[in-house]
Amino acid sequence: MPVGDDVLVEEHLRQLAGRLRGPRRLRADLMTEARHGLLDAVEAYRDSGLPAREASRQAVAEFGTPDQLAPAYQAELAVAALRGLSLRVGAFAAAASVAGDLTWRGSTWSAGPRPPDGYLLLSQSVEWIWAGAFLLGLAGLLLVTATARSASPALTGLARTVGTALTGAAVLGALAGAGLFTWSFLLWDAALTWPPMVIGMVAATAAHVWVGRAARVWLLATR
Q: Within 10 A of 79 (CB to CB), how many other CB atoms are there?
């Protein structure tokens, strides 16, 4: 059926899409599914003898208004956004725990004087932050599974809390990591040209941007 014959349907879908925020791919899939359902309904009404315009009007009326439909669609998008954020934070935390020590291992300054206590505390704090973020990521994935089976308000509220904590942990981890790299460069001039340190800094920056995008999508989906 030509799209031009269903301007009312397309306008209805455009209004619904304009109310939704979340993972782009899922949002597009939801709109494609809704379009197919609406066009099938229009086709059925036309086959029953209704004029094209009236068939579209009836199908849209049955489908529901954007205000009625948006909460259910948005809830699904929010769950998907939490899944994406949990996976990215968990993956980053796991990689950071493995790669963190490699950044300093074998460095020319590792056999030198002991770093300041504040530096050691910050270094340990980075590990704690990402260990906690990893556990939060696991909790987020468990909640995604649970909310798929039940739309309990308690689970929804808990999922929002975990998502907020994940976002906070990602921000805190980024700030602590940036502080640790900066302090390292101030303590040891050789760190500026130590390949593992430089590679680690570039990789960590890219990973933080990757996690940050997922956090932004989650914040938009739950706003």
A: 23
Statement: residue 54 has pLDDT above 50: yes
**Spatial CB neighbours of 150, under 8 Å, sequence gap ≥ 6:** none
**Which letter does DSSP use for residue 48 in this model?**
T
CA distance 43 to 56: 9
Determine the Cα–Cα distance for residues 223 and 221; give it in Å rounded to an integer.
6
Among 165, 85, 160, which residue's Cα sits nearest to residue 129? 165
Residue 186 CA: distances (Å) to CA of 92, 105, 181, 192: 26, 18, 9, 9
Q: What are phi and psi of 50, to 5 degrees?
A: -75, 145
Q: What is the pLDDT of residues 7-18, one digit of tens each?
A: 889 999 999 999
DSSP code at position 22: S
Alpha carbons 80 and 51: distance in angstroms, whole number: 39
Report residue 202 CA to chain centroid gap.
22
Separation in Å, CA 117 to CA 101, 122, 140, 176: 18, 9, 34, 15
pLDDT tens string 95-147 = 988 777 777 776 666 667 888 999 999 989 999 999 999 999 999 999 999 88
pLDDT of residue 3: 47
Longest dimension (CA), the chain: 88
**What would the two tokens of residue 17 be?**
């899409």
- DSSP 3-state of 2: coil
Residue with tokens 């397309």: 10
pLDDT of residue 1: 42
pLDDT of residue 197: 84
